[in-house]
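Example (one chain per record):
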Amino acid sequence: MIGSAVADPVGTGDVLGAVVVTALACIPIGISLWALLDAARRPRWVWALSRHPQTPWMAAVAAGVLLTVVGLGISLWYLLRVRPDLAAIERGELTGTVDRR
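Predicted structure:
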């Protein structure tokens, strides 16, 4: 018929595929937001005693939310390298984590 459009039915596979793609796309954003919130919640004194400056790290992670692949790398570096140093200082373990220049 002219003028009538028949929509293709959406199958279960299409919906499942969309859910999987959406979940995979949310992983980098979720990791970046986790890193940003963790950096923001650390007390100033922890950052002051560490060799890591808070403002550049928060800016890098925040900018990384917009740059998916780069942001994922920055966030993972923070979570795997910087966060353990900060957590150790927060627990009172100051040996080896403080930069004494």
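Caption: The chain has a mean pLDDT of 86.
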